[in-house]
Design goal:
- The protein has 141 residues and is an all-alpha fold.
- It is 93% helix and 0% strand.
- It has 1 helix and no strands.
- The longest helix has 131 residues.
- It is rod-shaped, with a radius of gyration of 57 Å.
- The protein starts with 6 loop residues before the first helix and ends with a helix.
């Protein structure tokens, strides 16, 4: 059977001494390591959160700038289009004016040529009519 004597006190003292030594040698260093790890993890998580916030902020700024730049580009495109249309209109007007001047010049030139041809035909018509009359009559005039 179990008997309680003075060895139980030695066993209790031995157990308490063992707990004290294990606490000093094993548990405290492990708890210290775990605490350091926990602190490191929390600081790393905080750092990651800060970086994520900065990334989100930068992303939003980038999107804002991109939208602003796109709008500016569209406005510039519209301005260039309207300037191009105005330039096109101006060029067409110049081309039409130039074409009309060319037509007037061509008509004037044609009138001059027609007048020259009429004069030369007038001169030659007398000889042609005389030759025609001689051929029809069969004698000289």
């Amino acid at each position: 059977m179990l008997s309680i004597d003075h060895t139980i006190l030695i066993q209790i003292a031995n157990f308490l001494l063992l707990l004290l030594l294990l606490n000093i040698v094993v548990y405290r260093p492990i708890r210290g390591i775990l605490n350091k790890r926990k602190e490191m993890m929390s600081s790393t998580e905080e750092l990651a959160r800060n970086w994520r916030q900065k990334a989100d902020k930068n992303s939003m700024e980038f999107e804002g700038r991109l939208t602003e730049t796109r709008n500016e580009g569209l406005m510039e495109k519209g301005n260039l289009k309207s300037q191009g249309k105005e330039k096109k209109k101006q060029m067409l007007m110049e081309a039409n004016a130039s074409g009309e001047e060319e037509i007037v010049r061509a008509k004037s030139d044609m009138r001059g040529r027609i007048a020259q041809v009429r004069q030369s035909l007038q001169k030659e018509m007398e000889t042609f009519s005389r030759e025609l009359a001689e051929k029809i009559l069969g004698r000289g005039i």
